[in-house]
Amino acid sequence: MFWDCSGSFLGFYIPRNRPLTKSGHKEFGQFEYFQLYTLLNNPNSKLGKLDKKDLVKHNYVSKDAPDAISGETIHISNEIMVSGAAFTCYTLWNKVDSTRQFITGKLVDSEVISQNDFKVEITNINEIPAAKLALILKIADEQKWLRKLSIQNELVENINSISPLKSLIVSNYLNHQKYLYPEVKAKLDNCRNLQECFENMIGAALTN
Please, what's the b/e burial string for 40-61 (b: 16 or more CB within 10 A of its CB; e: otherwise)? Predict the structure, then answer.
């Protein structure tokens, strides 16, 4: 798994000989990897409020057979977990979250920049090193500037002309927002750079 220098999750790489599996030893498919990636990229997931034992509701088949129980994966409102892989999702999300907190805890206090200076920086996004972009987006996120339509539009305006890494950093921070404007989401969904990044994450595992 990979993080940027601000602690934001970037993605994962699945080796060819170590594909993820779910119940019944069935291998993840492309859509399930995408579900997992979406979940891991949500720092506010409700998984953070659950204990591992909460993942499964045990239902007694009958009161005369206390050991005869069936496990049913719980439903987490408004979130999608890979069916049959609740413990995998839970374990990996907590790994991502603990690493994010560790990296964030090692950072010095964020540099104070004005919103106008931030807009100047992102206007020159092609010249900004990826590490610096991650840090200024962290500041913008803390200041709630990324919730604004004008800022979101500016960030995705040339998302296919910047490096795939920068595209991924921008996408991750925008997807952390409580509201992503439809026109912005459409540009992210159609971004070739992001599609390339995701294909590189899972390509090996899905190649026979």
Answer: bbbbebebeebeeeebeeeeee
The Cα 104–Cα 108 span in angstroms is 9
**pLDDT at res. 152:** 94
In 10 A of CB 167, how many CB atoms? 24
Q: Concatenate the DSSP letters of all residues of 106-169 into one string.
A: HSPPPPP--HHHHHHHHHTTTTS-HHHHHHHHHHHHHTTGGGSHHHHHHHHTTTTTS-HHHHHH
Which helix (H) or strand (E) segment holds residue 59: the answer is strand 56-60
* CB hemisphere CA count around 55 (13 angstroms): 16
pLDDT digit string, tens, across residues 38-47: 899 888 888 8
Phi, psi of 75, deg, nearest 5: -95, 130
- pTM tops 0.85: no
**Distance (Å, rounded) from C-alpha 46 to C-alpha 83?**
16
Mean pLDDT of 111-115: 76
What letter would DSSP give residue 42?
-
Total residue length of the chain: 208
What element of type H or E holds 195? helix 192-206
Q: How many CB atoms lie within 10 A of CB 110?
A: 15
